[in-house]
Design a protein that fits this description.
The complex is a heterodimer. By secondary structure, chain A is of the alpha/beta class. Chain A has nine helices and nine strands. In chain A, the strands form two sheets. In chain A, strands 2-1-3-4-5-6 form a six-stranded mixed sheet, covered by helices on one side. In chain A, β4 (74-78), α4 and β5 (97-101) form a beta-alpha-beta unit. Chain B is of the alpha/beta class. Helices cover 38% and strands 12% of the residues of chain B. Chain B has a seven-stranded mixed sheet with strand order 1-7-6-5-4-2-3, with helices on both faces. In chain B, strands 8-9-10 form a three-stranded antiparallel sheet. Chain B is globular and about 70 Å long. The chains are: A alpha/beta, B alpha/beta.
Chain lengths: 275, 377
Amino acid sequence: MICSAIEHDAIRAAVENPLVVPVDGDGVIRLNVLETMLNRSGPALVCLMLANNETGVVQPVAEAAQLCLSAGAWLHVDAAQAVGRLPIDLKALGATSLAFSSHKSGGPPGVGGLLVDESMIVEPQIRGGGQELGRRGGTPNLAGIAGLAAALAAEDVDYAVRLTGLRDRVAVAATQFGAEVCGAGATRLPNTVCLALAGVRADLQVIMLDQMGFAVSAGAACSSGKISPSHVLQAMGFGTRASEAIRVSLPWNTDPVDIDTFIAAYQHMIERVRS
Amino acid sequence: MLPFFTDAFANAASEEHAAGRRARDAVEEARGEVAALIDAEPREIVFTSGATEANNLAIKGYARAQAMGDQRKRILTASTEHSCVLESVKSLCSEGFSPIVLPVSSTGLLDPDVVEAALATPTLLVSVMGANNEIGVLQDLAMLAALATRHGAAFHSDLAQLAGKLPVSVRETGLTMASLSAHKMYGPKGIGALYIRRRPRTRLAPLLSGGAQERGLRAGTAPVPLIVGFGVAARLARRSMTTEARRLTALRERLHRGLRAAIPGLSVNGSVDSRLPGNLNITFPDRPAASMLAACPRLCISSGAACSVAELSPSHVLRAIGLGDDACRRSLRIGIGRLNSADDVDQAIAMLIAAHEAPGAQSSLPLRQRPLAATGA
């Protein structure tokens, strides 16, 4: 298996010793390395995320798909962060399979989906009563599925423009206060910005912002509790500064006033730690 | 449960912020309720997407975790188990394990001598359900668990149908692992749990890779609203199950009496004495169940497990207790639940009797499966 250095733990832990495609300083996978790996490995399963969960950096998956296609490799795309936030054209993307999550798309937690070619799954993870065409046993989470469908069907026409504007206001202000936007040179999700603040530990930033009423995270929530620097930022070359970045995610209903309040809180936090 | 869908939607793993802690506290409160229902400790409860996943995790997870250091490869289960247990056990064949599916007697109960004989060969794991989903038969879990323990095997039980219906103590029964489902006790669909005994420690290999949620045993963001709903359902069940069991037993006996009086030759499938309060599985002397159901559109009952809807084949449970294909087609499972009254039961009796007496009720249609649940419109 081949995966990138910035994949979610769900992918990283799925296979022992995968070939790992590095990313550049902006957190974008290095396609030329992927190409070399594919040439050497021959047919393989390649797992790439469409957008990173910590930095929001969007990956060149369609280009990677071309490389996979010519090498005869399968491409699985983890689109958990992207579905509902970016327009996705499955055909143009060229993925063999694509995973997504309801609660990342505005639906309830506890449900997700796998788009997969009819011929692909040979071995179900969970066996049972033949539900989901025999690919996934268990009584379906009806409320969750209905909620997911409603979230995906909900139209939010100016989502990308609106959220990108708000996100960039956070980015610009934070940069003025001395922070660095991780992956600043790359295309990023409209709602995610990852801010590194030199010399200030991320857990301290999270606690201070929590006290001011903001729920931000240091790294992925899934790895909360274990205090280790982000593997994503390390892969981007942040070194020890990987422990100094917080992820700020904007919900769909964020309004400009929320951004003003957040910027003030962020500034206040910096003043307190610097004094 | 509803506020956790809309206002309090934070990730329960995000303990660094207040919203995350509120979600975590709600999850932990629910874990306590679920644990209390079966006399377990909260940290012995791992939330899953339902009993199907819990059964898969228990059986495959236990077998895989022991695979390295244990020579024993034998896994015992019963022929009347839910398909997810049978499938999980059988799938381990390809990983070098030896599944043994034990027969049951005509009452649906496992014969202790058969189990004892099977345990004479060193066995890794025994998996036997608490109550059957089709015929409602209650296995003697304490006896079976004691047998397994005496022979050094772990004992897992699918309690999906039993928990919340009748009191059960995993500790006193001696279970190593037990699977639960929320929607079988009036909680939401899409959530369940696996009880994993801590002392002595039970080691499992997780099914899913990912974050370290549920102490590393079940990756994936916790569905907080579903877990909260499960906790409330467990609490309500714990408070009401003793009186509810008595009420449902009386209703089931009323239903049985009413049908038996009007339909000579009607038989009950599975032990009459050792069964779930709200379950009656009957075989009509001469009418296919499908035609009876078609004649009673207001009744919401099923002829087999809802889970096997795609199969349209005769119930493996009824066949396991000795019914032929024809008798299987004449069989009906009737579930009586919390929302049903004596009046519902009387109406059901009247409708079924009328359907049975209707001329031309014969039908050669294959088994038609209906949504699970209770009598009454």
